[in-house]
Amino acid sequence: MDEVFERNYRLVDRFTMLIKPQVRSIFDRLIEVRRLPGDVIEFGAYQGAVSFFLALCIRDLGLGKKVWMLDSFAGLPEPDPSIDGAFTAGTMASNLEAVTRMRTQLGLDRLVEIRAGWFDDSVMRIGKNVTYCLAHLDADLYSSTRTALEHVLPRLVEGGALVLDDCLYFGASGVVKAVHDVLGPDIHLHLGPKTQAFAYPKGDPRLDPPAAMWKTLGGRAYDVADLLTRHDYRELVSWEANFCRERATLYEAYIAEILGNGEPGAESHKIASTIGFVRRS
C-alpha cells in the first residue's frame, strides 16, 4: 500500500494545499472502505489534486469505483462572518479547463466525474442511485459543508468514511457547526493531521480500532487515538517546533546584537532577510 500511496502522491503533490500526512490519512480511509460498495466524492477540489490522487489509487487497486469531483471553480461563496472566520468570498478559485486537461493527461476521464458549480446545484446533477463509501469535504464554510453533508449522509453506505477539513481552523467554527447540525453533537469525530477530522457516521468498518482517547480542542471533544499513531505527522510537528525555536533564538540574538553595545556575531545576518515575513494584522 505504501508504494501505491507514494507513487500517486508524487503525481499530484504540487497541486494540493494539504500536507502529506493529511493526504495519507485520506488514503488510509480509502483502504479501510475499499471493499464496500459505493463511489468516492470530494466537495471542494480546488485544482483537483486529491480527487485525481484517489482515482489513481482506485485504478491501481482495481476497485471499480469512480470519483465525483465537486467545486465551483469560482472560489468560495459568501461566508457568514459570525462562524466562518477569516474566509472570504472568491478565494480558492481555480481553472476548470486546466483541471479537465489534467484529468485527461492522467488518463482519468472515465474515473473522475467533474460537477462544476455551487454545491446545491451540482449535487442535483449526480444520479439518484449513486452511493458513497468515502467522502472528503474541504468546503471551508458552514453553508457549503451543510449542503455537502445533507447530500452525502443518505447515500453513505454502512461503514462508509467521512473526512472533513478545517475543523480546527483558527477563528472559524462553521465546519464543526455544520457537522453538529446534520450529524448531531454526539458524532464520534477522530482527529486527523492538522485541521482534519474524520468519522464513520454509520459504523466503524475497522475490525480492531484503537481504544478511544478523548481530548477537547476548540470546545469540542475529539478522539486522538488514531492521530497518535501517525508518526509522519508527529515528526513533522516536532521538526517545525524545533525550526521555530531556532528562528526565535536568532531573532533574539539579532535584537541584542543590533541594539546592544556588542559587535554582531558572524551568524546574526542570517535572520535579516526574513524580518517582516510574518506580518502583523
Explain what the structure shows:
Helix content is 39%, strand content 15%. With 281 residues, it is of the alpha/beta class. It folds into two domains: 226 residues, Vaccinia Virus protein VP39 (Rossmann fold); 41 residues, no CATH class. The strands form two sheets. A seven-stranded mixed β-sheet has the order 3-2-1-4-5-7-6, with helices on both faces. The chain has a two-stranded antiparallel ribbon with strand order 8-9. Helix 6 links the parallel strand 4 and strand 5.
State the gist of this model.
With 281 residues, this protein is of the alpha/beta class.
Looking at this protein, list some descriptive labels.
281 residues; alpha/beta; Rossmann fold; 2 domains; seven-stranded mixed sheet; two-stranded antiparallel sheet; 9 strands; 15% strand; globular
- What share of the residues lie within helices? 25-40%
The CATH architecture of the largest domain is 3-Layer(aba) Sandwich
Quick one: overall form?
A: globular
* Average predicted local confidence, pLDDT: 91
Number of domains: 2
Query: How large is the count of helical segments?
Result: 9
- What is the beta-strand fraction? 15-25%
CATH top level label of the largest domain: Alpha Beta
How many beta-strand runs?
A: 9
**Helices and strands, in N-to-C order?**
HHEHEHEHEHEHEEEEHH
Q: Would you tell me the structural class of the helices and strands?
A: alpha/beta
N- and C-termini, Cα separation: 44 Å
**CATH topology-level fold name of the largest domain:** Rossmann fold
Main sheet: strand order: 3-2-1-4-5-7-6
Question: How would you sum up the major sheet?
Answer: 7 strands, mixed
Overall radius of gyration: 21 Å
Poorly predicted sequence stretches spanning 5 or more consecutive residues: none
The CATH homologous superfamily of the largest domain is termed Vaccinia Virus protein VP39
